[in-house]
Design goal:
727 residues; alpha/beta; 21 helices; globular; PP_kinase; Polyphosphate kinase; polyphosphate kinase activity; ATP-binding; transferase
């Protein structure tokens, strides 16, 4: 009865739970691992991604929930459930997902290993010669790094590290009279490869390091009876939401460094353990970490499937994954000429759509600026950087060449905090002016400005976008960005930098919408404008592509616009808390999600505006954190040609029937399939073929654009006439 009541409460809510929606997103990623049309290696890659995603989910989302539970704070989920009932529902869903994850591994992927040239074997399954090699590896490399840590009445409970493979070894000796059994922990060294590799002719054998340790575990317990040795792994709370200081005068960098250390000893929110584990061990762990069966995941396969990345990166197999096509020249930079960008951008704006267009124009512009004698200064926000970053190298070079360099480094970029602090300190030493975040706000905007003296005039070269200044992820994430010397953008961006690096209060921006200033309200006004047009019988329509949709205030405006008759098409990759297609609430709202070879990261906003579309790109999703706790910027795309390109990006995403999933009213998703004789359309492939004709023909709401429909029909007629003439 209680289960039915909880289910009804979730179904009756106007909103989808953020955390349950996230788990559904990870199911869409798992769906890629089930795709038989992909190579085994691509499928293993997606399985590893689901494991990585789930690690972050438990550290951050489940960790956040436990902040409320452990600190006695009230929390009501979008589903309407309080903390404890929601915890139960969420962890039940997580258990179902993990069961499905391991089912895919054991029944669909593992049977294909040998025919694809490799296998994962235990030491006992090896030949005698191979066993000797593994034994030598254990003695010389693994054994010296192992440190047994006993827990009993004489020894305190050791600090076990977050997400490390650990053996819980239960032992007993003849002398153990008062205490029949003891528990000892052996953590697997994190700086060793997950697999020991053996080459067998055309076959590669991967031997898990944990199985090598299990094989030789008696070496650590001489003259002691081993009752059981069970592998497990813990995940600790990595969310600091309730602990973050609002004190502007605090030593911000030191604060972040302290919090990074707390990750190592935060409360345990998940325990993964192999099946048939020791009840004695589990009783001690439950009591020690205040967890129950909901937090405990008994696994039927390898613990921590992120280890598969070693297989995927093996020289023999890395070419057997998806081969990315070479980038194509942007339509707005047809010669792909990055040598004379300073001259080119004075005449024409450029829009880039990554990874279909390379990030090279942005990197080359920055590198040229670092060396150019006429460049006076560079200002840039940085959220995440690549390893061996060319962006960082260019900024260092610019500082060495005496240019003014201002960099706003976000040290709260999750899991990149340490890297960003180190990189910021390097830039400081080189003479750059570095700001480490803005206290309680996370700087998430992607923005760069180059100031160049050209004769009597100073020109500002501006780059704004949706993606990070990371040349590695720019090859895997879809993003959109704008390069321009337009004076309105330059003024707005210059003002924005003054705001985030000083105490300036700007006038109204012309081409920017910013957070935390007024982004939510301006987006609401744009939605209301469409609703007013619909109520007056005028054409209206909204198409938005984002990563996450969670803000209740904006969702409520979508509901109101839907009731007014506005057709709303939302392309939301991950978390989506709106309910599409509910009677008397959201009949005019459709939601899709694209999950495929590339990580969808583009943010684009389209408002029909009675035939004069308003189109924006930028860094923000529709989330409370984006509007209230982050420094974000959206930019209007005002150039008509570039606006058409942005509209075409949305059009292709809506047209996709290979990577797209349709969200249903209950929050579940179904894979989109071609209807009837509709041709197959894979946006991740078609974006490499975009030309000017495609741009002219793209239309989001054809019924609202009779003139475009007429133009399309006229073009088709002309094509038919040309065919006839040739005949």
């Amino acid at each position: 009865m209680l289960i039915n009541k909880v289910s009804e409460q979730i179904k009756s809510s106007r909103y989808i739970s953020r955390d349950l929606s996230w788990l559904r997103f990870n199911y869409r990623v798992l769906d890629q691992a089930k795709d038989a049309d992909k190579t085994l290696f691509d499928r293993l890659k997606f399985l590893a991604i689901t494991a990585s995603n789930l690690d972050e989910f438990f550290m951050i989302r489940v960790g956040s929930l436990y902040n409320y539970i452990d600190y006695g704070k009230e929390r009501v989920d979008y589903s309407g459930l309080r903390e404890l009932p929601f915890r139960k529902k969420l962890l039940e869903f997580a258990h179902r997902f993990v069961n499905d994850q391991y089912l895919v591994y054991s029944t669909e992927l593992k049977p294909l290993f040998e025919e694809n040239g490799f296998n994962i074997l235990k030491p006992t399954e090896l030949s005698e010669v191979e066993k000797k090699k593994v034994d030598t590896y254990f003695k010389k490399t693994i054994y010296p790094l192992l440190t047994p840590m006993v827990y009993d009445t004489y020894h305190g409970f050791p600090l076990l590290m977050n997400q490390l493979l650990t053996f819980g070894v239960v032992t007993k000796t003849a002398e153990d009279i008062k205490q029949n059994q003891r528990l000892t922990f052996v953590q697997i060294p994190q700086n060793l490869a997950r697999f020991y590799e053996i080459q067998r002719k055309d076959m590669v054998i991967f031997v898990p390091i944990e199985e090598i340790v299990r094989w030789k575990i008696k070496k650590l317990f001489r003259n002691v009876e081993i009752v059981s040795a069970n592998l497990f792994r813990i995940t600790r709370n990595g969310d600091f939401t309730l602990e973050e200081s609002d004190d502007i005068e605090a030593d911000f960098i030191q604060e972040i460094k302290i919090k990074l250390k707390t990750r190592k000893k935060g409360r345990v929110v998940r325990l993964e353990v192999e099946k048939n584990h020791s009840s004695f061990m589990m009783k001690l762990l439950r009591e020690r970490w205040t967890i129950d069966n909901a937090n405990i995941f008994s696994l039927t396969g390898p613990v921590d499937m992120k280890g598969f990345w070693q297989i995927l990166k093996h020289p023999q197999f890395r070419n057997r994954m998806f081969k990315q096509p070479s980038p194509v020249a942007p339509l707005s930079l047809p010669d792909n000429n990055t040598e004379n960008l300073f001259d080119y951008l004075k005449k024409k704006d450029v829009i880039l759509h990554h990874p279909y267009n390379s990030m090279e124009p942005v990197i080359r512009l920055l590198e040229k600026a670092a060396e150019d004698p006429y460049v006076l200064g560079i200002k840039q926000t940085i959220y995440r950087l690549a390893d061996q970053s060319r962006v960082s190298a260019a900024l260092l070079k610019a500082a060495e060449n005496g240019k003014h360099v201002s960099v706003l480094f976000e040290v709260k970029a999750r899991f990149d905090e340490e890297r960003n602090i180190k990189e910021g300190e390097r830039l400081e030493k080189a003479g750059c002016f570095v700001i480490y975040g803005i206290s309680k706000y996370k700087t998430h905007t992607k923005m760069m400005m180059i100031i160049r003296k050209e004769g009597e005039k100073v020109t500002q070269y501006v780059h704004v976008g949706s993606g990070n200044y990371n040349e590695q992820t720019a090859r895997q994430y879809t993003d959109v960005s704008l390069l321009t010397t337009d004076e309105v953008y330059a003024h707005d961006v210059s003002e924005f930098f003054n705001v985030i690096t000083g105490h300036s209060m700007p006038d109204e921006y012309q081409n920017l919408i910013t957070a935390p200033k007024d982004m939510r309200q301006q987006l609401i006004e744009l939605i209301r404008g469409e609703a007013r047009n619909a109520e007056q019988g005028l054409p209206s329509g909204i198409v938005i592509k984002i990563n996450s949709l969670e803000d209740k205030a904006v969702i409520d405006e979508f509901y109101a616009a839907s009731k007014a008759g506005v057709p709303i098409k939302l392309i939301v990759r991950g978390i989506c808390c709106i309910r599409p297609g509910r009677e008397n609430l959201s009949e005019n709202i459709a939601v899709s999600s694209i999950v495929g070879e590339y990580l969808e990261h583009t943010r684009l906003f389209y408002f029909h505006n009675n035939g004069d579309p308003k189109v924006l790109g930028g860094s923000a999703d529709i989330m409370v954190r984006s509007f209230e706790r982050r420094i974000e910027a959206l930019f209007y795309i005002v150039n008509e040609e570039l606006k058409k390109e942005a509209i075409n990006i949305l059009y292709y995403n809506l047209k996709d029937n290979q990577n797209s999933y349709i969200m249903r009213e209950d929050g579940s998703y179904v894979k989109k399939q071609p209807v009837g004789d509709e041709p197959v359309f894979n946006a991740h492939k078609e974006f490499y073929k975009v030309n000017e004709d495609n741009i002219e023909r793209s239309c989001l709401f054809e019924e609202l654009y009779p003139e475009i429909k007429l133009k399309t029909e006229t073009i088709k007629d002309l094509e038919e006439d040309l065919k006839e003439e040739k005949l």
